[in-house]
Amino acid sequence: MKKNVFFALLIILLASYGFGGCKKDNDRDFTPLFKNSMWTGEFNYPTKAAEPISIEFSEDGNLTWRELLAAHAGTWKLNKGKLNISLDGSHSFTADISDNDDLTNIQNSDAAQRTLKNATLSKGDIPALANTVWSASNVTLKFKSGSVLDLSFGGPTTLPTYTNVPYTLLGRSIRFELAPGYIWFTVITTSTFMKGTNHAPGDATVYTFSVIKQ
Fold it and tell me: How does pLDDT run across 45-95, given as a tens digit for each residue?
């Protein structure tokens, strides 16, 4: 009799532990990860290369999706631990949230046929840009005071091809034009790294680049 009671209590204890563990996972509140936060990541249009994005989540359930072509208004909500994003009035993406504050298991249903590839919570402050140099072997951005920059097609010692180009910083994204229709767009993913893209007039190719703070 005592043995039966012991095993019955053990089964109840193990069942309670299992349900408790599941409940803990399902009840995690992801809301603080999105309220008034910025996320960066990558997406692509069909047959195009991956492009960077900056997503700004507001406390009221609205968001702004920033990419090279335009900024798009949208909404977000959480449902049983899943993030749902709608852009331009229609549902676009559903994703799980990992313990590392990344989006995983992304499902795409975007009306514009965008595919969200990845996104991560931006935890650091946006670095000051004035008087900094961000460079790779093929391109260098020299940010100056007054929200202007010089651009060189080469390393940091290369003479600039374009000088005193006005730029706009919105969220974690930077946007500027080297000539009418020659648009450049880059996203500050960390305090020392940017990923960008550019489209030249009449050229459908997506050109991507990345630069590191020197």
Answer: 999 999 999 999 999 999 999 999 999 999 999 998 899 999 999 999 999
Spatial neighbors of 104 by CB under 8 A, at least 6 apart, are 95, 96, 97, 98
Class of domain 132-213: mainly beta
pTM of the model: 0.85
AA letter at 98: S
Indicate the fold that domain 31-121 takes in CATH.
Lipocalin (2.40.128)
Note whether 31-121 and 132-213 share their fold: yes
User: Domain coordinates of the chain in residue numbers?
Assistant: 31-121, 132-213
Count of C-beta atoms within a 10 Å radius of residue 1: 5
Q: What is the 3-state secondary structure (H, E, C) of 152-164?
A: ECCCCCCCCCEEE
